[in-house]
Amino acid sequence: AGSQLREIFDKIDNLLSGKSVQTGGRTVSVTQHPQGLEFVHYKLAEKFVKQGGEEVAAHRDAAFTIAVVASGIWELHPRVGDLFLAHLHKKCPYAVPFYPALKEGTSMEEYQRMLGYEVEDSKVEEQDHFLKRMSGMISLYAAIIQVQWPYGNKQGKHPHGLNYGWRWLSQMLNMEPLADVTATLLFCFLEVCGNALLNLYKAQFWKMMLFIQEDYIPRIEAITSSGQMGSLTRLKQFLGECLQQKKIPAPKGALKPAFWKS
To answer: pTM of this prediction?
Structure first.
């Protein structure tokens, strides 16, 4: 409910503003330790990214409720935003976007970690699970760049707005695609953020969509094996429908004005 989200937001904001906050049956304040504020900035940013890789990965609709809080906190406490990006880029290099290259002297295990895979006892997580986590983090990022906390400064500029989404998409399309990964993340990003980008960039955005369909998808197809066609098929279908209907559907889970009355 909107009222619950406001309570959570106010509690985080109060904590970061140096006020005392009740949690787990005790009162805490960042002023209790000289590095208390820096520690809370770091852990909060880490937590937002973790929610992308876990909660949003499991329930895509959760992206906007987490995003609106993260965006509002970022606006009031810019340090959290800087650290959010740092954690995000470490956990999901594709959010930069960046495809790490295998350098001489780097072990395979270390390289897989650089690519964002979870590796425990030399065992690498399954591809499906990996793609789901990466999709969750990209979806959360795609939601954050388009929403603002509704109770903040109405004239306040978004701390990391849609222009960063346009930049991310442009940079992705300037890179050679990776099998499975590129199609999955492009689809996620466009599904969550395509409608907002279209509203802002209009004809320019349609040109980009056409470029993906006519130029970039054939490049993805060229490196995709028969067992990796699922994400590519979803991307092609999504693009085809959007271009045919000349519209991009509003994302699932987007918060409507009525939500804040709940």
So the answer is: 0.95
> Within a 10 A sphere around the Cβ of 71, how many other Cβ atoms?
25
SS3 state at 119: strand
CA 58/CA 45 separation, integer angstroms: 20
- At 187 the pLDDT is 97
Please, what are the domains in the chain? 1-261 (1.25.40.510)
The pLDDT, as a whole number, for residue 139 is 98
Distances from the Cα of 206 to the Cαs of 51, 104, 134, 218, 221, in angstroms?
A: 32, 41, 26, 18, 21
Measured from the Cβ of residue 84, the count of other Cβ atoms closer than 10 Å reads 26
Number of helices followed by number of strands (H, E) in the chain: 12, 4
Beta bridge partners of 124: 119
Position 122 scores a pLDDT of 85
154 has a pLDDT exceeding 70: no
The C-alpha angle with vertex 238 and arms to 232 and 244, in degrees rounded to 5, equals 130
